Amino acid sequence: MPPIIDKKKCIGCHTCVDICPVDVYGLKQAKKQPPVIQYPDECWHCNACVFDCPVKAISLRIPAPAAMVFVNAPKKES
Ligand code: SF4
Ligand code: SF4
């Protein structure tokens, strides 16, 4: 599922547009405006835009089948 942008938090920096490896946001966007998600089906849930958004305005809905492959790393015993 595509990312969701909180338009109240977004400052329109377009770091997410620049960093998305598959151009979910499209290529040309009006700066200082929240980006428009132009190709939502292309999102592969890499989380790059979520991690790099400076104001944490992006959330990602990871589909259940994809979420099942994520596991927490085991804690190291000291
Ligand atoms: S990186 Fe965050 S603040 Fe910048 S345009 Fe994208 S959603 Fe908005
Ligand atoms: S999660 Fe990855 S693929 Fe999806 S929109 Fe963000 S940067 Fe692009």
UniProtKB/TrEMBL annotation:
Gene3D superfamilies in the cross-refs: 3.30.70.20
One Pfam family matching this protein: Fer4_7
Protein name per UniProt: NAD-dependent dihydropyrimidine dehydrogenase PreA subunit
Molecular function as annotated in GO: 4 iron, 4 sulfur cluster binding; metal ion binding
Keyword vocabulary terms for this entry: 4Fe-4S, Iron, Iron-sulfur, Metal-binding
Species of the source: Hungatella effluvii
Domain 4Fe-4S ferredoxin-type: 1-30, 33-63
Protein's UniProt keywords contain Iron: yes
